Hints:
Elements (H helix, E strand, L loop, with lengths): L15 H16 L26 E9 L3 H8 L5 H14 L4 E11 L4 H18 L2 E9 L9 E12 L14 E6 L8 H11 L6 E5 L2 E4 H5 L7 H8 L6 E4 L4 H5 L8 E5 L8 H10 L3 H7 L4 E7 L4 H10 L4 E9 L7 E3 L1
Parallel strand pairs: 2-3, 9-12
Antiparallel strand pairs: 1-4, 2-4, 5-10, 5-11, 6-7, 8-10, 9-11
Amino acid sequence: xxxxxxxxxxxxxxxxxxxxxxxxxxxxxxxxxxxxxxxxxxxxxxxxxxxxxxxxxxxxxxxxxxxxxxxxxxxxxxxxxxxxxxxxxxxxxxxxxxxxxxxxxxxxxxxxxxxxxxxxxxxxxxxxxxxxxxxxxxxxxxxxxxxxxxxxxxxxxxxxxxxxxxxxxxxxxxxxxxxxxxxxxxxxxxxxxxxxxxxxxxxxxxxxxxxxxxxxxxxxxxxxxxxxxxxxxxxxxxxxxxxxxxxxxxxxxxxxxxxxxxxxxxxxxxxxxxxxxxxxxxxxxxxxxxxxxxxxxxxxxxxxxxxxxxxxxxxxxxxxxxxxxxxxxxxxxxxxxxxxxxxxxxxxxx
Length: 350
C-alpha cells in the first residue's frame, strides 16, 4: 500500500484558526452588551442567564428570525455592517409587542469559507443591535461548511429571549372601538419585502451610488437607503409602557400593515388607517412607481414608513405621542379602532 498525504481539516476547507481569531474579535464586542443576569461569557457550551430577581411572576417571551434576502444585497454591495442590527431587530421588536424586556440574544452565522473581516463586521452589527435593545449578546455559533454556500455568501439567524410580568402581558384583548392607532416611523424597508425590492432594482437598473433622498440634511444614496438597518424600538416603547397603558402592538414585518395589525386585534374590531396621516418615505414611492406595484400590494408587502403600531385609549393618545417623541421616535396618530361589521378585513388603509 502506497503512503498517502496526511489530510487536515484545513485541507477539507475548514480553518479552525480563522474561527478562533473570530472569537477573539467577538469577545470585546459581547462584553459591551453585558447586563444584569449574565452568568458567563462567550465560549462556553451553553449561555447562562439568571432572570432578574425583581420580577414576581416572570413570563419568558422568545422570538427567532433571520434577515431574509436583504443578505443578497449585502453580498452584491459588499456592505456587511448593518445586517447584524437587522437580525437583532427582527426578534427583539417581535417580543416587545407582548410587553417583554429583551434579556439576551444568540446568533448563528454560517458560511462556506470563513472571512474573519466580514464575519466580524456582521457580528459588530449584532452587538450594536443588542446595545440598542439593552440585551446581552451571550453566545452564538459560527459554522464553516465548505460546499454549502457560494463563495462570499453567508446566512444569518438568531433568537432573543425576554421577560415580562405575567400581569403586564400585552395581548390586545382590551382593544375597543374608539381606541387610537399610533404609528412609529420605520428607518426604511427594514428586512422585509426584499425579494420584490431586488426585482424592482433588477428591472429599473438605477445608479445605486447616486443621491436618492435627504434625511436630517444629509444626502443618501439608494444603496444607503436600502441597506439602512431596521429600527429597534425596545427602549422607547418600554419607557412608554411606564407612562401610559398600551393595549396592543404590532411589529410591521413580512405581511406589511394589512397582515400584521390584525394579529393583535380582537375579532370584533377593525383598524382603519389613514395613509395621509404619516409621510411615506421616498423609497416606497420609488418602488411603487418603478415596479408598478398596486397600492394594496404595497401595504401587504412593505411597512410603507411605519415600523411599529401601538394602540392606546383615545384619552391617552396625546400623552403617548409626547412620550415617544421625547425618546427620539417619530410618531403619528395614524388611525382608529372601529366595530367590525360582518367578516370584513380587520385592517384597511384609506
